[in-house]
Design a protein that fits this description.
The protein is mostly helical. The protein has helices spanning about 35-40, 40-50, 70-75, 110-120, 125-150, 175-195, 205-225, 240-255, 270-275, 315-320, 345, 350-355, 405-410, 425-435, 440-445, 450-455, 480-490, 500-505, 510, 530-535, 570-575, and strands at about 5, 80, 285-290, 315, 365-370, 380, 420. It has a domain at about 5-40 and about 100-255: Serine Threonine Protein Phosphatase 5, Tetratricopeptide repeat, CATH 1.25.40. Helices cover about 35% and strands about 5% of the residues. A 3-stranded mixed β-sheet has the order 1-3-7. It has a two-stranded antiparallel ribbon with strand order 2-4. A two-stranded antiparallel ribbon has the order 5-6. It is globular.
Length: about 575
């Protein structure tokens, strides 16, 4: 079985990706070889494209992080918070004088990709030997642009390496829909050019990974255009349907393509949890792309200094309440729900993924094993209220997902793999796209949502018999869309999807504005943890932890501006240099 992972490599053409930060898309990459000498072989193309892989997240050398499992807090969402609140969600961003993600140097990666696409044909190789590298370059151009799209919306489209005198450097921004059309075109070609999983080389993007990414972008844009329609963030004349259809087609093609990807079986009480703390995913059928860490090659990370104590992050009560009970009913109607008095009652009778996502003092949640001298495993007893700020959990609901209990992973640098793409997302995109289009059938649910439910022992979703929910997350939407969004939320919790989901659904008015994040019931630890330690955690009138209660800027809840904050502001200097670049709404 092919293994798909990313390792940091010392490339023979190091420096190709870097560009001068004072120039916009205008520097020829510097190498020790002349341009005429370089473009000769397929190996030259591979060496060049290798540099593009540095675009993926790394976290190498980063302290105070728990990798992707803190992204829901770091990026800002209703799933997780950290002890220092997210200022962007609180409407505190200002228009930068420069930089802000739009500075000249921020586009240098695009310059490098376009330079490759303008020169690869010089290589004295057959098209069959070149096309997979062209496919990778097109994938990474889409990857670059998608990041900019999420931040800024409308963008200039640049698909060739421009020189400093080009008038095209003064172009304005094109509609986001036009940009996504271009990304779909790039990814259509990438899917065509790239080899399938069974034929792809290790450590490289393949056809199915490109399909998943294409479906992700199409789903994002389709739902953005649908739910922002009629606002300053919408696309005139579009309801996003064509992109929703694209998301449905591409994800269905991936699901039915028999390429060898499928959900990983997760047997036992901790099988789902174990999916996220492995050091080697080369044999996984679900993890499609991941970053491998090797202490002797590219170093490791420091996540597990913090996954055992909280990393200043914490799951919110809002997320915890979204997990169904084992009978498939929400906590509001299920007789299995035992209340919030303790962590044990919170997870009792609930979707098994909940107890595998947060720490519980049940004698099964391990902090550290494989300890020196054969010492017994250290088990979780209480959140680390007395720890330094970077270690204590913000809500009392401490993140267990992604935690590796191996002492050797916690001692210094760890090597738990960083997951970049996993197959479960394709199932969720397919179900959501079909539901948004009004075409989801029971057979569609059975090859998507119900596979996710079945592997953790949850009842299947029956379209004609959805359990009543007196407190739906999105009251204006159908029970089916609510249920599919809920399933997406719990399956992908703590993996960094939720911020983008809230933004593409235009859901900040319902989920963020005025919201005061809550955590666990603090009183459950009053006879276990010293009172002076608990006193550092404010509570609401019902006794739930409300960490931001005494922070003046957050005491009344988030002050997100729905007429402005869905997109980032452009820096002032760039609009002076190019008057055709207009500021985003509300700024």
């Amino acid at each position: 079985m092919k293994k798909h992972f990313i390792a940091i490599v010392f490339f023979a053409v190091a420096g190709l990706l870097a560009g001068c930060k004072d120039d916009f898309l205008d520097k020829i990459p510097e190498t020790s070889i002349s341009d005429a000498e370089y473009w000769k072989t397929a190996n030259d193309l591979q060496l060049y494209v290798n540099n593009f892989y540095t675009a993926f997240p790394s976290t190498i050398g980063a302290y105070g992080t728990i990798g992707i499992y803190g992204y829901d807090a770091d990026e800002g969402s209703d799933n997780m918070i950290y002890t220092g609140y997210n200022t962007a969600l609180n409407g505190e961003r200002i228009v930068p004088s420069s930089g802000g993600g739009w500075a000249y140097g921020d586009w240098s990666a695009l310059r490098s990709i376009n330079y490759f696409l303008a020169n690869y044909d010089k290589a004295e190789e057959s098209w069959d030997n070149k096309k997979k590298y062209v496919g990778e370059a097109l994938f990474f151009r889409a990857y670059f642009y998608f990041s900019k799209l999420k931040a800024f919306g409308d963008l200039p489209w640049v698909n060739k390496p421009l020189d400093p005198t080009s008038a095209e450097l003064k172009i304005g921004r094109l509609s986001r829909a036009v940009i996504v059309d271009s990304l779909m075109n790039d990814l259509d070609k990438a899917v065509d050019y790239l080899p399938t999983k069974s034929k792809a080389s290790a450590m490289r993007i393949n056809k199915e990974i490109a399909q998943l990414f294409q479906a992700r972008i199409a789903m994002y844009e389709g739902s953005w255009e649908k739910y922002h329609a009629g606002t300053a963030f919408g696309v005139t004349g579009s309801n996003g349907e064509k992109f929703l259809q694209k998301a449905a087609r591409v994800s269905e093609a991936l699901i039915k393509g028999n390429a060898g990807y499928q959900l990983q079986t997760t047997p036992g009480e901790d099988g789902y949890w174990k999916l996220f703390n492995q050091t080697d995913y080369s044999a996984s059928t679900e993890i499609m792309l991941w970053r491998k860490f090797d202490l002797n090659l590219n170093g490791g990370h420091y996540w597990h200094r913090y996954t055992n104590t909280g990393a200043a992050r914490g799951l919110t009560k809002d997320l915890v309440d979204s997990y169904l009970c084992k009978d498939g009913k929400p906590i509001e109607t299920s007789p299995l729900y035992k209340g919030d008095a303790t962590l044990q009652t919170v997870v009792s009778g609930r979707d098994p993924r909940l107890a595998q996502t947060l720490y519980v003092a049940d004698g099964k949640h391990i902090i550290t094993n494989n300890r020196p001298g054969g010492a017994a495993p250290a088990l979780f007893e209480t959140p680390s209220f007395s720890a330094a700020n970077e270690n204590k959990p913000a809500t009392g609901y401490q993140v267990y997902k992604g935690h590796n209990p191996d002492y050797n992973q916690q001692l210094d640098r760890g090597t738990t793999g960083l997951i970049l793409f996993r197959y479960a997302e394709a199932l969720l995109i397919f179900a959501e796209a079909k539901a948004e289009l009004g075409t989801l059938m029971q057979a569609d649910a059975d090859i998507s949502i119900n596979l996710l439910r079945s592997r953790v022992g949850m009842p299947t979703l029956t379209l004609g018999a959805l359990p009543a929910n007196p407190n739906p997350e999105f009251p204006a939407l159908s029970p089916l869309i609510n249920e599919i969004r809920r399933e997406r939320r719990v399956e992908l919790a703590c993996e960094g999807y939720r911020h983008d989901d809230l933004f593409r659904w235009a859901a900040a008015d319902e989920k963020i504005v005025g919201w005061k994040p809550k955590g666990a019931v603090l009183a459950q630890w009053k006879d276990i943890v010293p009172a002076e330690q608990l006193a550092t955690y404010p509570v609401d009138e019902k006794g739930y932890i409300e960490f931001y209660k005494t922070i003046s800027g957050m005491s009344s809840g988030y002050k997100f501006n729905v007429g402005r904050d869905y997109l980032a502001p452009l820096p002032q200097d760039q609009m002076v240099l190019n008057p055709d670049i207009k500021q985003n709404p509300g700024w």
